[in-house]
Amino acid sequence: MDGWYILCILPTRLLSFANLEQTLLCPVMFDSIGEKTLYIFAISNVITIPMVWALYPESNQRTLEEMDLLFAAKTPWVWDAERNFARLKEEHPEIAQAAHTTTTHNLKAENISEIDKV
Q1: 79 and 63 within one domain
Q2: CA within 20 to 30 Å of 1's CA: 8, 75, 78, 114, which one?
Q3: Calpha distance 79→75 (Å, rounded)
Q4: Is 57:76 a contact under the CB 8 Å cutoff?
Q5: pLDDT digits (tens, 9 = 90+) for 14-45
Q6: pLDDT tens digit string along 44-97?
Q7: Together in a domain, 67 and 20
């Protein structure tokens, strides 16, 4: 669930380090503790769930301009980010509205060009 988000936001050198660590560490872990390695990964995934819930805001159906407003919060907590996002969206409705208008306009233009092709 959170793996794709992390792939999008982390620099490549950190991703390559994590991949290297996992590639080198897994065979040693499986040799020494066997199937308990999978329990360690399961526990780490369970620990990750509340972190994702508390630290990763929902980005579905939001434009890039709205994402800028969403990440303008001073704290990493989702509830603060959402509260700050709602306040900024009320203070600057032209930002969110312009983004949606442009998106809608682009979609209409794409549909018209597709109809012309048929």
Answers
A1: yes
A2: 75
A3: 9
A4: no
A5: 667 777 777 888 889 999 999 999 998 899 88
A6: 889 999 999 999 898 888 888 888 888 888 998 999 999 999 998 898 888 767
A7: no
Q: Which of 56, 77, 99 is the last residue of a domain?
A: 56
pLDDT confidence of residue 24: 85
Residues 91 and 46 in one domain: no
C-beta of residue 80 within 8 angstroms of C-beta of residue 73: yes
Residues 49 and 73 in one domain: no
Specify whether the backbone of 34 is left (phi greater than 0), alpha (psi in -120 to 50) or beta: left
State how many domains the chain has: 2
Q: Do 46 and 65 belong together in one domain?
A: no
pLDDT per position as a tens digit, 74-86 = 998 999 999 999 9
Q: pLDDT tier at 99 (50, 70, 90 boundaries)?
A: low
Range of the domain at 39: 1-56
CA-to-CA distance for 52 and 39, rounded, in angstroms? 20
